[in-house]
């Protein structure tokens, strides 16, 4: 399936809808109106209808969405009806906490390789059974284990060089936790997670409202 | 200073501009054109000019922005010409990795309290010197230590109840790492960081482009 010109904000909201729908399914909800789904997701119902309209017709007018169907349709849209193999680069405090975090595997993201440059870490076994490889082995391991997405949790100073190595190894998707803007060719999609940028937004709201 | 109706996306981009400008200052750059600043930030120059126009006149036509001045102006806009005290709730792998992460203090965010419910953790000293308090002491400690922002790194099942406690203690800003939508009154500003939502966006791009 190919879709073009879908706003990134829509894609991000689809993920939120998916998670809310999965929670509803666990609570044995079969059908949900766009109004109720919207309330759970913190958006307005028109937004949900508009976001889904990019991809076709969903739901039954006057009834709502069948939860199990909408889950499967959103998964197909996002490419989540499969697992994705991740490589962690940088197994410090944050990197190892992320590898242990149960939320990745729950959503089909599997840490299948981990890299560091610290000789104290290379060769050590992580709680999930992975042995930490040296970054020099990156290209070989990425190909052997069919890694799809690189996760960077190195210090800022190392992030660009790690990104370059991931791209040379054929990786086209990077999740970057290092607090620096990395430059990549157009074929590669980068998402940044900088915790302090979210805090700046909170600080702004606290400063202006109180 | 009061500003209204500024899009959240603008606020987030101001944070990115600020970080890039701070790196430029470290590299001894005095003045930068909006074109060059835009390239470093991964946006177009018109976007930067539009974002800054919400807050007044910046830069000198044909010359550019004085880096040190623009840093100080963006900090004033965002409310970052001060420090903000954070409380971490949930000192698991992720929570303790975040407390140790140098990037918070670099940007003026100080972990001044940490809470858990695990009797094995309560009373223990963290590497930054903080003693972990029981969540039952939250209201008292939040007031004593003048905490401004709560950071939730508990399991999803505990996040809403922790958010309620933070709000009762007078907290109006929450950074939520638990993979669940928390409901808060309008006076409170929540930012969510769900790593897998960013991965979904990467998965979508990989699925549609390749």
Question: What this model shows, in words?
Answer:
The structure is a homodimer of 210-residue chains. The first copy, chain A, folds into two domains: 8-78, Winged helix-like DNA-binding domain superfamily/Winged helix DNA-binding domain (Arc Repressor Mutant, subunit A), CATH 1.10.10; 84-196, 3-Layer(aba) Sandwich (Rossmann fold). Chain A is built from nine helices and eight strands. Chain A has helices spanning 8-26, 34-41, 45-53, 67-78, 93-100, 102-106, 138-144, 156-168, 195-209, and strands spanning 31-32, 65-66, 84-89, 109-116, 133-134, 149-152, 173-176, 189-192. In chain A, the strands form two sheets. In chain A, strands 5-4-3-6-7-8 form a six-stranded parallel β-sheet. A two-stranded antiparallel sheet of chain A has the order 1-2. In chain A, helix 1 (8-26) packs across helix 2 (34-41) and helix 2 (34-41) packs across helix 3 (45-53). The longest helix of chain A is centred in the N-terminal third of the chain and has 19 residues, at 8-26. The radius of gyration of chain A is 20 Å and the shape is globular. The model of chain A has no long low-confidence stretch (mean pLDDT 93). At the A-B interface, helix 1, helix 5, helix 6, strand 7 and helix 9 of A face helix 1, helix 5, helix 6, strand 7 and helix 9 of B. Chains A, B: Modulates transcription in response to changes in cellular NADH/NAD(+) redox state. Chains A, B: InterPro entries: CoA-bd, NAD(P)-bd_dom_sf, Rex_actinobacterial-type, Rex_DNA-bd_C_dom, Tscrpt_rep_Rex, WH-like_DNA-bd_sf, WH_DNA-bd_sf. Chains A, B: It is found in: Cytoplasm.
